[in-house]
Amino acid sequence: MCGITGYIGKNNGVEKVLEGLSKLEYRGYDSAGLAAIDNGKLNIVKTKGRLKELEKLVLEGKVEGNVVIGHTRWATHGVPSGANSHPHTSMDGKIAVVHNGIIENFRKIKDSLLEKGYVFKSETDSEVIGHLISYYYDENKDPLLAIKKAFDSLEGSYACLIIFLDHADKIFAVKKDSPLVIGVGGEEVYLASDPAAFIKYTKNIIYLENNEIATLGSDEIKIFNMDLEKVDCKVEKSNLNEDSASKEGFETFTLKEIYEQPKVCMDTLNSKLENGDIVYEDFPFTKEELSKINKIYTIGCGTAFYAGINFSYLAKKMLGIESFEILSSEFRYDLPNLDENSLIVAVSQSGETADTLAALKEARKMGAKIVAITNVLASAITRLSDYSIYTLAGPEIGVCSTKAYTSQLMAIYEFILYLAKATGKIDESKFKEYIEELKSIPEKQKKILDDVGIYEEIANVIKEKSSAFYIGRLIDYKTAMEGALKLKEISYIHTEAFPAGELKHGSIALIEEKTPVIAVLTQEEVFEKTLSNLEEVKARGAVTIGIYSEIFRGKDKTDFSIFVPETYKVFYPILTAISVQLIAYNTAKALNRDVDKPRNLAKSVTVE
């Protein structure tokens, strides 16, 4: 996820674009850049690093312009660097583009352009956009037609701002599946990924729809569909204020990030899918080497660890390989016997987690293969790993992990399927079935988010107690652990998770009148046994809450019942995770907690 801004008007817009980028830096902060047209020149300034580095360069160069586009980057294709920073230009330097999203077929487009003699300066998917627009623009010198033809050829998600030196009185914008809004302010027009970038100057907003192209001048706005037919543009009055706008209308960043999960899970899935296959570019291990792996160790901390234990569970079930999950903080003090046939899967949102870094250093000394699953390109953990799989969650501002967790699960599912196919554990037919089911997951997540009425009622019960418990069996127990962590870290209610069958071996002594017990029930082979465990706690006065697969509707026996759509049994955690997040979120809000910044916690733990 990146942030883009634009300005066109009668005044110097560079300062306003920089100000807008500062409001969007939460969307990406590994590099930043801008392009400005001034006195017949197109000036590009961009750099690796935080926005303050760009501000220094702009000040030193005295860059000005009344047509300006800007970008703050969250790297997806290509490491953070000056070359990979936006804006990207056409080969003749007369067209500049900033892009938020992913161009899924960029390799095919790039190869075609290379054959035509185009020269690329970056590793990004975004650079193909400027070259492709230039290619069509050279045919007829019509910028709108060139943009239409280019985006007809591009697949993926995008919000783009484009400026042409030959048309220095316009900014062109195009949108599909990535946010882009227009701010109308008298003789000034603003564009951004988020109204936070310009809400200080205008609350008159046009929300660009999917597959629309806009041409914007200081005194005229025109919007077209992809057939270049003019469409009406509706100006709405925003009720956002400067403080809340960056939350896109949500009460908190955490809630916004909960609702972003269908999008980021789809982005993570699509980033490795090519023609129905999972492609890891430059993957270092051959099929023969993968077939020799005899032990897998999954490591991580906190939520990343709970995501990782799903990988360990699936490795046993789908790969038939002996698999273990070990907390990073324990790993290096109780080292397993590792060798070149051992695989370490390290999960970390930030890629900087100190305990995980320390564990990987020990694993590296012993010759183990290392694959990282992380949300941050070129982070420390990726540099210690043989290969890194990136989730596309974008910046996560809320301290408790929500979208980072489910995007990690999506990356884990893809990696398991890749290994299973590469080692012959599943055939092509079964592989395709799994892929098709993964493609359906985001829509199923949306269904959960469309029906959230029950969670407030459940929260009002939980908030009255000082302790709560999560239970589950098999893979549901993995979600129970994550659910307990979510509830305790943002509501401050003591919460523990137990395998459901273990309750009677000691923990049931803690059940008292109205103790909330939340059970995850999606696995058919243990459904009746988990129901029996719920009856045991209910008989001792507990309030029972069930998170069920839709296949069990009508068989639920809890005081409160939540249902998630049916999916393959191994994929339920990516759905039930949203329900446990909503339970925790609503409970914390009912207790007036600071959900985004819970006490004593930091987003990334970089000390041991």
UniProtKB/TrEMBL annotation:
Reaction(s) the record says it catalyses: D-fructose 6-phosphate + L-glutamine = D-glucosamine 6-phosphate + L-glutamate
Repeat in keyword set: yes
EC number per UniProt: 2.6.1.16
GO MF annotations, alphabetized: carbohydrate derivative binding; glutamine-fructose-6-phosphate transaminase (isomerizing) activity
Domain Glutamine amidotransferase type-2: 2-219
Major site of localization recorded for this protein: cytoplasm
One Pfam family here: GATase_6
Domain SIS: from-to ranges: 286-425, 458-598
Active site positions: 2, 603
Protein name listed in UniProt: Glutamine--fructose-6-phosphate aminotransferase [isomerizing]
UniProt source species: Citroniella saccharovorans
Lineage: Bacteria, Bacillati, Bacillota, Tissierellia, Tissierellales
